[in-house]
Each structure stands twice: as structure tokens, then as C-alpha cells.
Amino acid sequence: MSDSATLLAPLLDDPQVWRQYSRPVGSVREDHPDWESQVVVQGMHCAACAFTIEDALRSVPGVRSVMVNAATHRAKVTWSESEVKPSVWMQAIERAGYQVLPAQDHGLREQRLQETRRLLWRFLVAAFCMMQVMMYASPAYVTEPGDISANTLQLLRWASWVLTLPVVLFSCLPFWRNAWRDLAQRRLSMDTPVALGMALTFAVSSAGTFDPQGPLGQEVYFDSLTMFVFFLLGGRWLEWRLRDQTAGALEALMNRLPESVERQSEAGWERVSLHRLRTGDVVRVRAGESFPGDGLVIKGQTLVEEAMLTGESRPCSRGPKDSVMAGSHNLSAAVEVQLEHVGSETRYAQLVQLMEQASGSKPRMALWVDRMAFRLAEGTSSRRILGGRPQQQRRLLSRVGLCGSRSPRGVGDSSSMCQSVG
Fold first, then answer.
1. What are the pLDDT digits (tens) for 279-318?
2. Could you identify which of 231, 270, 331, 412 might form a hypothetical disulfide with 373, taking C-beta atoms 3.0 to 4.6 angstroms apart as the criterion?
3. Cα–Cα distance for residue pair 191/381, rounded to 1 Å
4. pLDDT, tens digit, for every residue of 51-67?
């Protein structure tokens, strides 16, 4: 399957395009300055994913520095214009198994809502099946041996097995995909021990259900498996909700500028894209549109909403020779504005830059927790797979099936959730 970055390379490498989500680092008067780009990475679920993406980007010649935030799913990439093109380091991210989009892509919100809905459906299916499985497992916990006939216990096991299938095949699908991606890339993430624990738990329990007299027929763990998936998806959904609120506020700010605007030319008024505007251009902003840059009103009278920058909730009256700011909304009438600052020189761009820096940074303690969780995942998985003797096979399978579920993923998810709340 072709990478989207490869197919869109001519567009991504257009300076007028990547400058919309990048800013120069150092002097803008240099022939080939370094650029700092903000992108959104899709498919991340833990700190190990962030480390994988950082390693993939650092291996690209021309990439100066990388900072990936697992909580906000954003990456800050500093790269040299003279050594590498944006499509090249984006392809490195996609080869690692993830999707990347510019931070100012207008389709991010819709994609985020769709992913949140899918996650909610998986969580609800796991919740319903977990409650039913627990109902069938409760008699075995509260009764004495011999109170329930063997045929009745076997019937309850079969009912639990049937109700666990939707959880394994539908609710656990993201974990299977991530684990398969990790195996294909020959790496380990915190979803790997989770998928290992789920697979072995279901295999051991299924063997006990199909052959109750066999070596694994003493116990089944369908209730533990469904409950674990329920709590794991519940925590992930809460994290998504918190991240959606944070990302939604940032995207609402970043997408306030119009995609196109009417500019005065010798032939009259023509609609041009935002990145073609230059200082000194005269633009016409109609009611309901946002101002594309900082400038002075030269014709017309209107009301402007500037709450984003000034905090003033009341609309401000603006007429000839009054200044307007990029990102503010024109509320009442069309006006003509002569632009004084465009692009990264506007106060709006400076505000967006500060918010991007805040969303992309991570506390030192969060970085330490993420790295420790990743190392713990590596050591835990290897010991659980390689440890044990052949004569302890039954104990090993049962222990891996249950203890594999208690993976270090909870540590990484907890740090990401705390960072999102903070």
C-alpha cells in the first residue's frame, strides 16, 4: 500500500503549503533556515509509540530535533530546508506504521470524532458482554463445590465463551492491530503484552471450555478477560475525551483564519488563497468572515469580535484608520483592509505558536515515567514468555494469561491522562 506522504509529495514539498504549519527557526533572512513544523500523528496509544516515532524521525538526515507528545498526539519536528523535504520525514513516520497530518488540517476534527465514536462503541460492547459474563461466572464463586452440577457449569462456560467472542473480535481489535503492526516492524510497544495476555487468556479459557477434563479444564477466565478489556477501553475513552477537549480548543484557535479571501487587483476583486497574501495588499472581508492578517480599515464600518486576543466579550466598533487583528471575526458589514502583517508576523500567529509549544512540551517527570513504563514492558514480556520450565506449562500459561493483562500500559496511560488533565 502506498504511503499518503509519497502520493502527496509534490503538494507537501510546496513551500507555500508547509509554511502554513511551520515557522522559521533563527533568522528568516537566511537562504535556507531551519523550520519547526507541528504535525498530528494518528495511531499513537502509548509512550512507546512516541519513542518509536522519535527514533524514526531522528534517523532521517536533515532532521535537527524531534519532540512527540503521546498525550496530545502531536509532534514538533525541526528540520533543515536545504537537507530534507517535509514529505521525506513524513514518509519515515508512515513507514513506522502511523499516519501524519499537518496540525492545521481542517479534517482533523471530523476524523477525531469518528475515532471517538468507534472507541465508544467498542467500550459499550465490552461493558454489556462483561456484565453478562460476570452474571454467568458468579454462581461458581458463591456456591460450594458440588452445589451445581457439572452439566450446568459447562453450560455457563459455553455461554461465557459465546459472549466473550464479540469482545475479542470487536472490542479488542485495536490491540490486535497494534500488536500485529509491532511484530511487522520488529519492535515492542505497550500494546504487545496487552495483546499477548488477552490472546493467551482466551486460548487457555477456550481450551478449558472445549475440553473440561483436560489439563487446562479446571478454570476459565472469561470474566477476568472481559472485565480487563472493559476497564482498559474505559480509561482509553476517558483519555480520548480529555484530549478531544484540549485538541478541540487548540484547533478552534488554529482554524480561525479563512482559507481564501478577496484581494484587490488591477482587474478588480479576485479570491485568492491565504498564503498568497503579502504586506500592503488590500482585501475585502465580508460579514461573517475572519480577518486574514493584521491591518488598517480603509473603507467601511463594522463590529469586530476580538475576544480571542483581548478577552473582551463585547464586539468592538471598527472604522477607517482603525486597526484589526488576524483571527478576529467581522460581524456586521463588509470592510476593506490594508494588510500590515501576514503569516507568522501577526499577533494571532504568535499566540498559536505559544499554544503549540505548550501542547508539545512534556514535564520531566512524565518523560521519566514513559521511559520506565516502556522498559518495564520490554522486560515483563520477555520474562513471561521465556521464563518457566516445561513441567510448569499449565501454571505458566495461566499466569501469563492473567498476569500479562497487568501490563505496564496502565502506567503509560495514567501519565498521559494526568498530563491531559493538567
1. 888 999 998 888 888 999 998 999 998 887 777 778 888 9
2. 412
3. 11
4. 888 888 998 998 988 88
pLDDT at position 137 over 80: yes
CB within 8 Å of 398: residues ≥ 6 apart: 204, 216, 219, 221
How far is the C-alpha of 32 from the C-alpha of 240, rounded, in Å? 39
Cα 336 off chain centre by: 40
The CA-atom distances, in angstroms, between 243 and each of 264, 323, 348 are 41, 35, 23
**Which residue's entry shows cell 463594522?**
302
Distance CA 119, CA 232 (A): 11
Judging by beta carbons within 10 Å of its beta carbon (0-12, 13-18, 19+), is residue 153 exposed, middle or buried? Answer: middle
- Name the 3-class secondary structure at 44: coil
Residue 141 Cα distances to 138, 223, 295, 313, 395, angstroms? 5, 11, 74, 61, 21
